[in-house]
Amino acid sequence: MSSSLPYDSSATPGGSTPRKSLLRRVFSNSPRALKPGPNSSALHLWTDPGTIVQIVAHPDDDLYFINPDVRRAVESGGTVVTVVLTAAESDGVNLDTGYWARKNAKPDYATYSRARHNGLRRAYARMATGDPDSPWHRELVQLTDNVAMECDILSACQQLRLCLFQVSHSLRGERNTPSGAVHGLSTMWRRETAEASTLVVADSPVTHPQVFGHEDVTQALARLLEVYRPTVVRTLDPDPEHDGGHKDSHVESDHHEHTATAQYALEAVRRYREETGIAPVLEHYRAYANRFWAYNLSHRAASEKAELLNTYAGADGVPDPGADLGDFQLGPNPYRSTHLFSTAYRYAPTTSWLVRQSNGLLAAFAVQGGQVVHWDEQPETGDWDGPHTLDGDWIAPSLAVVAGRDGRTHLVGLRRTNDDTGFPTVDLVHRVRNAPGEPFGGWVSIGNPDAGEEDRRRQRELGVPAAAADATGRLHVFARNFAQGMSRIIEEPDRSWGKWFGIGGDFLQDAPVALTTASGRVELYVPGKQTIRRWYQATPSSQLLRDDKLTSMPAASGGITAVEAEPDRITLYFRQAGTAQVMAYRQQPQQKGWPGRSAGLGGHDGTGPIAVVPVPRRSAGDVLLAHRNAAGSLTVSLPPAPDAPGRPGPQWHDLSGSVTYAPAAALDAAGHAVLAVIGTDGRLHVARQTTGDLDSPFSPWLTV
């Protein structure tokens, strides 16, 4: 919008070399920037992209389910380590799955596994250098006494590494011959088999087969984490949803090795955290279940993904006389797979993890390494105290945070606990702080709506929580159940908990949001197959009603945001399926219905929900918006100035920094908007507006 200006070094610790401002309207060069605390640094951006370790089952899992986040991490210049646990030998036939002659082809498991490695190396080389044939250095790394792996280092970009464990799913014994039975990660995780063997491939520095047990895999992964000290760990879905088209049965929707890999990754992170005290950010990605929900990548992002998959599949036009430069099973058209069109977190993130407490001070919350951490704003100085860790069992990344009008701050998390066979118990837990500054109480289980089901697998699909405190201060908690409808549980007046009961709905995404209106009414919004669904109280403390009048359009998977910009007038913000454009769907004044369609607000691509701060005492369209863009950083739109002519649309501006999950935003006690993100460096970053006008610029980032 405006040209960059010299940055005032007086706002930089130590008066360091002046930097350039990002955008005049977004970040200010004003000397009124926040004074850094003793453990903080005030910069207009942060330059540490962190270290990312990705743990997947097969060589294409990261390209299908984590990209474009993989590419962004590589482009950031940080250390990126991708760990592939299995040999991924499949049926041993490296031919297009649609090719008529493949049924008569002789399987060669080692050759097919090697071809997949070649394809993966070429795809990463293309990401990092533009040249898929850029050379690699390959070496053997002895992680533990029992586990050696192949580590591939890109010579031109040595912070990029591929770690290959080669656990086979159907090979046993010294001769590595097919056994006719499946022995691999999933059976070891379930303790059905004690061990599995590895598959040796030609040209690998690991030249002899190995036999791994359950403990070997966990210990080796924990050791790998200790070596690389990641700030972010990425893996797959430990509890995938079933195919919702089969209401009365459990039809698996994901690959069993995806699930086992995610569970091994979680166990390794837990052990690493206990042994080192370091708790990285955890990001889980949906795999095959992406096909059930509206696609969330733009055409451009999908085409980038397709380009790399073509390289991985050996379909990028490079001569391949040895027929081993890629995974030919994928064929020459990556668009034939629905995996291409979405990249979604398993635990849908929220934008409500930054809250203003009853004393006016802000508090921020996150989950790192399975534990909740929080930071508290300090009075007068603007410094932040933290992070403080709340002990307890393993908590999934998406956390519901509610600051009630009675002064209490509520946390609701999704807890996972494994039994001796590796089978998880999943429930929701609640923790509360009775007043700002006081310590939090312990976690209290509030159960699982499917806890009584005979098939224990149904309990695993408990959704991420949404919560809101009603006019009396009682907390209402919502979660998706096995039937893909919604269930609710309510806090009793004596602060005990009632029972779970279903409120209806079907084919709902696991991304609910709840809010309390200014009049004290609780409302719930959940994206479905065709539109967003709504439940609401007509008056405070009344029964919950279902509103079937919304026709918003399908919301892209990944989360929505609901705000009350005007009294009793809700606006929904979400992304348009297939374009990633930010959309607004605004209720008519005085709750008189909903419009026929949503309004497009633009934005800069990307995934995940939109952080929104309405401007007090102005119209519902005057809001501050922030979202995670296609580059993995932050995009912000400030509301128009009060005297701006007409009704200008959002003016989006990209900021630097690499962001995990979704941003949050809130008003502080002085009415200044505050942005907060958790960076891929694993740290909290906040920026505050310089005045109480929401069209004013922000001070430089404060890294806590």
Sequence-ordered SSE layout with sheet pairings:
Blueprint: E1 41-43, E2 51-56, H1 61-66, H2 69-76, E3 79-86, H3 109-129, E4 136-142, E5 148-154, E6 160-167, E7 171-172, E8 177-178, H4 185-189, E9 195-197, E10 211-213, H5 214-228, E11 232-235, H6 256-276, E12 281-284, H7 299-312, E13 354-356, E14 362-368, E15 371-377, E16 384-390, E17 394-395, E18 400-403, E19 409-418, E20 424-433, E21 444-447, E22 466-469, E23 475-480, E24 486-490, E25 501-504, E26 513-516, E27 522-527, E28 532-537, E29 544-547, E30 561-566, E31 569-575, E32 582-586, E33 599-602, E34 611-614, E35 623-628, E36 634-637, E37 652-654, E38 664-667, E39 673-678, E40 684-688, E41 701-703
Helix pairs in contact: 3-7, 5-6
Organism: Kitasatospora kazusensis
Protein name: PIG-L family deacetylase
InterPro entries: GlcNAc_PI_deacetylase-related (IPR003737), LmbE-like_dom_sf (IPR024078), PLL-like_beta-prop (IPR058502)
